[in-house]
Write the C-alpha cells for this entry.
Amino acid sequence: MEYWIPSTLGSMAAAIGTLIKIDTRTLRKTMGRYARMLVEIDLKQDMEKKIMLVRAGHQSFTKVEYDNLSAYCARCGIVGHSIASCSSDKGKHR
C-alpha cells in the first residue's frame, strides 16, 4: 500500500499526463489493487500501456488502463470522431 500515498500516485500520473484528481476510494484505500485517477493526456501522443514504478531500489511495471476516452481523429486532429468516420481531407479542419 506504499504506492497509494498521494505523492506516489502523482508520480504515476505524471508518467502519462497531468494529474487532475485522485479518486476518493483510491485515497481511502478501498479500491483493492487498483488506483483510479483523472489525468489529462495529450491525445496526439501515444498512450502508455504500462509505467515503471521505482520504490526503495525495487522497480516493477504496472499496466495502465484508460476509460471514458473521447473519440479522437488522428487525421484532422478533432475530438469527437475517429478516422473511420472522418469526412475531411487530411488536415482540412485545422
